[in-house]
Every structure is written in C-alpha cells, then in structure tokens.
Amino acid sequence: MPRKIKFKAYKRRFRKPLRTARGEWLVREGFLLRVEQDGEVGYGEVAPLPEFGSETVAAAGAFLGVLVNEPERDVPDTLPCCAFALSAALQPIYRARGYSVSGLLPAGLDGPARAGQKAASGYRSLKWKIGVEPIETELDCAQRLLEGLPPGCRVRLDANGSLTLGAMEEWLNFLSGHPEKVDYLEQPMACGREAAMAEFRAAFGVAIALDESLNGPEGLAWLEPGAWDGPLVIKAPLMGEVNALLERLRPIAGQIVLSSVFETGVGLENSLRLLDRVAEAERPIGFDTVDAFDDGLNPIISKPTICEAVRRSYAPEMLWNLI
C-alpha cells in the first residue's frame, strides 16, 4: 500500500515566557505528521530549534509540502527534524517504561523558592537555567537553592553556552564545594569550546554535560564512545533518523540524559519510544515541560515520574484533531 502523509502546523504560546541565557522564548512552532503505510497509522512531530543546529521552521514546512505529494522521497541530511518525525511515526513499539523526571525551575530569582516546592512534591532531580542574571546574583541564589535541598536531591545547572572563562571558573569553584547536591553543569560554554570545558572539569572535579555541542553534523563526534567524559543531553527530535540515532546511543547509554524541546505529546512519546530501546539509560529525563502550554497538546500532567500507565493512554489522533 503506498505511503500517505499529511501534516499540520502548530503555533503554541508559552503560559509564561521561557527565560534562558539566549533571551525570552514566547512561541513554539512546529508540525505534526500523520503517516499511513501498509495499513498502519502513526504520528510524528517536527519541532525545529535552529539555534541548536536543526533546520528552520520555514525549511521544514517547505519540505513537508513536497513530501505530501512525493511521500517516498528521501529526507536530506540537512533536515534532521523532518527525518526524526517521519521515522519515529512508524517506529516499532517496545514495552513502555516509566521514567523519573528532572523538575524544571524558573530562571533567576524565583529558582530557590520553586526548588523547595518541587522537592516537597517528590522530585529528586532539578534543573535551573543560569546566565540570565548577573553572576553575583545567581551565585547567591544558588547558595540558597542548595542549602534548601533535602538529602538525596541534586541540581543540574544549565548555562546554554553563555559563560565566559572567568564566569565558568567562579561557578565551578562554587559548585565544587557541594558535590553531594550538584549533578552537573550543562553546556557552560559555547560550541567549539569543548577542550576548555574538559580542562575545567578535570581541574574542579565537577561533571560537565554537553547539550548544544551535540547537535548538527559536527556534534556527532561527541556521541562516539569515550569522546566525552560526562553526561550527554539528547534532544532526539533534533538528531535525525530514529534507527541511526538508536545505534549511536546504545554504546553510550549510561551517559544519556533525554531532554525536551518543548514538543507536544506526540514528540514526547516519539522520544520515549526511542529511549525504551536503550535499556541501560537510567538518568532522570528532562521533560518537566508538559505544563508550559495550556492548549491540550500535552495531555500528561507534570509529575516526578512519567509512569507506564499514563503512557498507555497516549492518543495521538486526539492531539492531531486539536490542531
């Protein structure tokens, strides 16, 4: 039976602007795909983030318009989000697993107060965006945040590549004094500064995770076994065809931290089904993002775990019909 493809565009406004070192993010744009082949129907999501090395929303939309009329057309390497969505739509379904979730804190001064609330509700991993306020202010906030954490709760600090050498040294000097409460510092410096980040990691003994460095063609080198000694933040919808990505991830399963790109429930399940096939991946996932919108396209409630029972209720056709 010939393949049939349909797509719909979405534009979603955040409940509150998302603040990062890159500025404020107000609107999320992308596409849902409906793929019918050999009597089966599946759904995928194209969720571009060009600042992370993917195609633009406009480029993705132009290609999807062609794909509707030429459904067997190969996806160019320059369109990794389209490749992921198309391959994920009909990927095999393995046993759905449950996953611990890392709680997302608001950037800046509100972080410490929310950390206490998140920890009280059961989160044992938290993520805080830094690089949005003066460093003296953020270091003071970080001190209060860490002091308020209960035993067993750890924090990931994400700079989105914004730190200078001096700021990174200040942060690592501070974080090295709290080894029991700090999980890692995520992408402290810009892509291309990996050697400097590795030197700082060795000098201060604080784990450093790569995120932005992994995306785009140049980023594949950091997914080779032994290339990086630390966590690797995987934003699967930006990283191309599912089976090829799976083969890259299996050898580095212990380093994987699956992370959100502020996708709908379709993209979330696409990513989780990929992770289901990487049995050794056990780190808390970065998907405390499902309540960032109020349009019904993220039916899962934000909680410390995404359980198997909730995943079994996944209804992609309902989400498709909401657009």
What number of structural domains do the residues give?
2
Task: Tell me the number of helical segments per DSSP (H or I, 4 or more residues long).
Answer: 10
Report on the biggest sheet: 5 strands, parallel
Roughly what fraction of the amino acids lie in strands? 15-25%
CATH class of the largest domain: Alpha Beta
Low-confidence stretches: none
Question: Tell me, what's the shape?
Answer: globular
Which secondary-structure class do the elements indicate?
alpha/beta
CATH topology-level fold name of the largest domain: TIM Barrel
Which percent bin holds the helix content?
A: 25-40%
The CATH superfamily label of the largest domain reads Enolase-like C-terminal domain
Average pLDDT, rounded to a whole number, is 95
Strands side by side in the biggest sheet:
5-6-7-8-9
Quantity of strands, as a count: 12
Q: Over all CA atoms, what is the radius of gyration?
A: 19 Å
How far apart are the termini?
Answer: 27 Å
Describe this structure in a few short sentences.
The protein has helices spanning 57-69, 80-89, 111-120, 135-147, 165-175, 194-204, 242-249, 265-276, 308-312, 316-322, and strands spanning 4-20, 23-37, 40-46, 99-100, 103-105, 125-129, 154-158, 182-186, 208-209, 232-234, 256-258, 305-306. It has 323 residues and is an alpha/beta fold. The protein has two domains: 4-89, 2-Layer Sandwich (Enolase-like, domain 1); 99-322, TIM Barrel (Alpha-Beta Barrel).
